[in-house]
Amino acid sequence: MKKIHAIAMGLVLIGAISCKQVKKEADTVSEEVVEEVKKEVVAVKTITFSMEPKSDSNVSGEVTFTEENGNVIMKATLSGLTEGEHAIHIHEKADCSSADGKSTGGHWNPTFQPHAKWGDDGGYHKGDIGNFVADAEGNATVDFATSEWCIGCDDETKNIVGKAVIVHQGVDDFTSQPSGAAGARVACTGIIQ
What we know:
- It is a single chain.
- This protein has two domains: 1-41; 44-191, Superoxide dismutase, copper/zinc binding domain (Immunoglobulin-like).
- Helices cover 20% and strands 32% of the residues.
- It has one helix at residues 2-40; strands at 44-53, 60-68, 71-79, 84-91, 130-134, 140-146, 163-168, 185-191.
- Strand 2 (60-68) and strand 3 form a beta hairpin.
- The longest helix has 39 residues, at 2-40.
């Protein structure tokens, strides 16, 4: 009988040690999973604004900026445009109060570069996004991404908050100073967070 009792006690001790070991291993795995999840967390900022028609146009739409992993992605969906090419820029002031959109000031140019095509070696405005094409129904989508912008950061040479998006009636020629001779401002939205 003592032998059976001793065997039973031994099994209980082995079971207790095994349970402690399993719990310890489970806690370790749990900590590793939590660590992996923490590493994968990425801050994403998104702001969306509606475009207002300007200069007696019927242009409307929506602009969304999303910042993730150090890049800002701009997506604009527009309607009411004339068929063909149009320019789109970021301007220096989030003020769409004037009927012609000129209350937004000039192109956003915090690094004091000449107007040019985005990416030119000689420099360009941080607001020089470029041209896009509207279809026969007057609809267009603009997709643009850059690491040279941020949403609400402390770097004023990158921060787009407090600026405006302007759609122009014409095409940016990328050479005329200071704005590319793109014509009337036909839609505006202020980027205010």
